Amino acid sequence: MLKSLLIQNFVLIDNLNIQFKDGFSVLTGETGAGKSIILGALGLVLGQRADSKSIQANAEKCIVEAAFDISAYHLEEFFEANDLEFDAQNCIIRRELLISGKSRAFVNDTPAPLSVIKLLGDRLIDIHSQHQNLLLADTHFQLNVVDTIAQTSHILDIYKKEYNNYLSFTNQLNDLTEKASRAKDEEDYIRFQYEELKAVKPIEGEQAELEQELEILSHTEEIKSALYKVTGLLNGDEQGVTPLVKESLTAINSLNTFYPKAKEFAERLQSAYIELKDLASEIDILKEDIDFEPERLEWVNNRLNTLYSLQQKHHVKSADELVECLHKFEAQLHQIESFEEEITAITKQQQTSYERLIKQANEISALRKKSAKTIEEEIIKRMVLLGIPNTQFKINFIPKPKPGADGIDEINFLFSANKNESVKPVAQTASGGEISRLMLCIKAMIAGYTALPTIIFDEIDTGTSGEVADKMADIMHDLGQKMQVITITHLPQIAAKGNEQYYVYKEDTTERTYTRIRQLDTNERINEIARMLSGSSLTVAALANAKELLNNRQ
């Protein structure tokens, strides 16, 4: 419920602080006194669009602050999700509008984006005006009314989870089908690439080995000639290095008995002799193995040319990367072949989900249709009390071609205020006054099924009087037993039914005119209701009538 409203420097209000109570309260006052200004300030704090022109002249900013008791609304998750401090007994929303045009919003002194303020405001206050009557023509609003009475929230939550599952399977299936279609178009090309590479069988590391072998095969004669020359230089009978080293070793060994260093020289020459002898032997064998092989040279050249050609085709730089390409094409072909299995599996999951969805949707539809009869009877009963004796009201159900987020029902409120006239959609047949009464009946009806936010009725009684106005007052008074109801009215019958009455008026000072509001005591209420009955001149009859109206309130 709304506990208080503080307004500073907003249009004609310099400083106003209103304390509200639970139950049914009324705001009265002359036309133009500023009741709409108070509503505008309340709309501002609830997240509506701000206009710097609303700031009072010579003020730097305007402030609107509303305090709520939100203990009945179960908003803990909302506050946690939006990183706001939760205080069930005293939730304070503040909006500051600066002369620069910028605005700031706070929830319990924590800065909050306007989108969050608006979402929170929608859960706390329902300002019912002539404009809101347009909601009655909204089929989504109509469905919400039926769901509230049918108490479908629990099964709808289950349904919506299944609906999201169904959508997920449908999206997966569409993606897979599209991918499979594209892959099928590319399969022949991919398979050709794969078969071409598979036929070549590239091997990791082979390119470097082949390139080295090509160098050898291309220079066989030079290599063989050089090796023969080295063999001759090492092992030649007269000038060979190895025989000369051996001769040197014999000479140095002859000095061992009288020249001590000769032993060291002999060891080093012995080591060199052994190494040269081994080297000469290896080269001698190797030169015999080097032969010109034109067939092998041709094969290596062809193999390398094939690898180079494939590398250029696939935009890679080595045989190792060709191996990666082969594996990639193999994986793509495997995926193409597995698409059919995946599509079959997802189709089965989608079908199972759809069957569960339809079953739940039918259960929800059955609850709605059962409650629709109750709603029709209740609306007609209430509308007759509000002065429309020939009311006809019907809820028309139209099956959707496929399940939607809220089930399989498309509904339409059908209405007629006249005898022997066929019912038509509310927007096509009901007048503004009839829609206002219909909306009042609907809100009075659903108040018994759910915790509604504070409702503010902005002159919902326009165009009514007498007994009809009295019945409207009874309905709003009954609503006040279940929730906080605040009504702006010009009718004494409605004003008298309020538990509390606030008087909005203008006060002229030497500087300017200000809007004021005060809560009326019993004597002030008698005078105000009498004024509403008789005008500015209070008569004895009007005062007596006012007392009677107040005494007769429920």
Question: Any overview of this molecule?
Answer:
The chain has 554 residues and is of the alpha/beta class. It has 17 helices and 15 strands. It has helices at residues 35-45, 76-81, 114-124, 139-150, 153-200, 206-218, 220-235, 241-253, 261-289, 294-314, 319-385, 426-429, 432-446, 466-482, 492-497, 522-534, 540-551; strands spanning 2-10, 13-19, 24-28, 61-68, 91-98, 103-107, 110-111, 125-128, 392-404, 407-416, 424-425, 454-458, 485-488, 500-508, 513-519. It has a 6-stranded antiparallel beta sheet with strand order 2-1-4-5-6-7, with helices on one face. Strand 12, helix 14 and strand 13 (485-488) form a beta-alpha-beta unit. The protein is elongated. The model has no long low-confidence stretch (mean pLDDT 87).
Q: What's a quick, concise take on this entry?
A:
Helix 4 (about 140-150) crosses helix 11 and helix 10 runs parallel beside helix 11 (about 320-385).
Reading side by side through the largest sheet, how are the strands ordered?
2-1-4-5-6-7
Question: What are the segments in which pLDDT stays under 50 over at least 5 consecutive residues?
Answer: none
Biggest β-sheet strands, sense, barrel: 6 strands, antiparallel
Shape, per Cα inertia axes? elongated
Give the strand content.
15-25%
- In helices, the fraction of residues equals 55-70%
End-to-end gap: 21 Å
Number of helices: 17
**Mean pLDDT metric:** 87
Radius of gyration of CA atoms, rounded to a whole number: 48 Å
Question: Would you count the extended β strands for me?
Answer: 15
Which structural class fits the helix and strand makeup? alpha/beta
